[in-house]
Amino acid sequence: MVRLTIDENRCKGCGLCVRACPKQLLMLAEHKLNEKGYHPAEITDMAACVACASCARTCPDAVITIEKE
Ligand code: SF4
Ligand code: SF4
User: Fold this and answer.
1) Which ligand is nearest to the Cα of residue 9, counting in written order?
2) Nearest bound ligand to CA 60?
3) Domain CATH code at residue 29
């Protein structure tokens, strides 16, 4: 089982992780603003995540962490 965590309040909504996911599981949450005033990234289907870590490696601010259980 994969646990992907996005530290929402550190996200700057750049969208790089959205483009990096080969499974297209990430999106910017249009309905939500974080403390910095950005739309943070969120995962749409945790069960479909293959833990490739492409998103985490791409994020310039190391906002995403991935743990395998
Ligand atoms: S770990 Fe891979 S499959 Fe999972 S959300 Fe990130 S880029 Fe997508
Ligand atoms: S790459 Fe990082 S800072 Fe940019 S949207 Fe994704 S989680 Fe947020």
Assistant:
1) 2
2) 2
3) 3.30.70.20
